[in-house]
Design a protein that fits this description.
mannose-1-phosphate guanylyltransferase (GTP) activity; Cupin domain-containing protein; alpha+beta; 460 residues; 5-stranded mixed barrel; Mannose-6P_isomerase_type2; Spore Coat Polysaccharide Biosynthesis Protein SpsA, Chain A; globular; 35% strand; 6-stranded antiparallel sheet; Man6P_isomerase-2_C; Jelly Rolls
Length: 460
Amino acid sequence: MKLVLLSGGSGKRLWPLSNDSRSKQFLKILEGQDGEYVSMVQRVYKQLEAVNLNHSSVIATSKSQVEMIQSQLGTEVSIVIEPERRDTYPAIALSAAYLYSEKNTDLEEVIAVLPVDPYVDDDFFEKVAQLEQVVVESNADLALMGVTPTYPSSKYGYIIPRQDEDQKSYFSVSHFKEKPSEKEAEALIAENALWNCGVFAFKLKYIINMVEKAGLPTSYPELLKTYNKLPKNSFDYEVVEKANSIVALPYDGYWKDLGTWNTLTEEMGINLIGKGKISDDSQNTHLVNELDIPVAILGVSDLLVAASPDGILVTEKSASPRLKEIINDFNQRPMYEERRWGTYKVLDHTKFENGPEVITKKIIIKANRNLSYQLHDKRTEVWTVLNGQGEVILNDKIKNVSAGDIIEVPIGTKHAIRAITDLEIIEVQSGTELVKEDTIRLELDWDKIIELCESTSSEK
């Protein structure tokens, strides 16, 4: 069996820590086994390793999340990169083409799809592994996994079974009900309905055949080129509603969707992360602070305070599900990002009238990692080394740098920097257009950068 992990999200649900580059699954605010903070995606991947499913997994994501995934899970993870966001069906179809044409996966192979961020016990993934047998034994188009409800929630969708069949480990699905009232949910639970947790499985040929019938290529490189022709639709509407036969496998273990601050804080294990203090009489109050300034909370209960370079949130926990409503028109660029080489934080962003745009960042490059060899046509950069040791390349010439050094990078200059020890830098960008599209990457790997510089020098 192969797994497709869906990694999406707009970055609004856990603002201000989450943004368009760092969705909720990448926030390192859960306690790991060794006491360190881990993200939801790191926790899930650790659980996949425990049941030997990690090597058969591929992550489907947008271009903006690739470096975050590589930073947290390593560069060996298989990633399918969506050229644009077009909902879950196109992402799954593209992943199917990747497995079929790039990984030579047999058409009879069972493919399971699940979100990258469920908060579950390890036995959840043991149940996911059982979907393979369910698909083969039932011969159904789709096999879903549903969670046995613990209360009549109006937040989730429900899978309702047929009532006229013999008891098995799985059941045939009658229909679905999306976010019913609590009273309706009580009646559905009485019918043995399950929460829909977004986990399902099928044989690879089922989706490959759908792509072929639509007149689209099943080769991964070719489907990438015609990705915009795939229906911009969810898998539920494009596939599930049209399936002839669907079965569901119940899971009665622990499962929670950590989609809002009030549900996330229930699983954090600690009520203070970052600089600050919470008074003893502040009950059930959490502070998550990514800023370098302290925050004090005094005499308030059931409160969540979150602070990051992207903003500050103060909310009663019960009100946190309404967060999207109030921040919907916040359209600033992400002020904090995690990359394959480290992190950066935007300290200041100014656009001068009839003058340049200026961005000041604090960059931390982890030891033995590097920025790519690149150049810009519309901006200059000035680096001031605050701490650590490294080496810089400017137009194929290399030199060592350490705390106190200042490096100027004029427009059109090829440049790269590598950290020998953890390296802290203040970077000031100045130019007419400070956008990612103005970055021309020549090489990523440091050894290959050195080879490129040596070959260029020998040609002169």
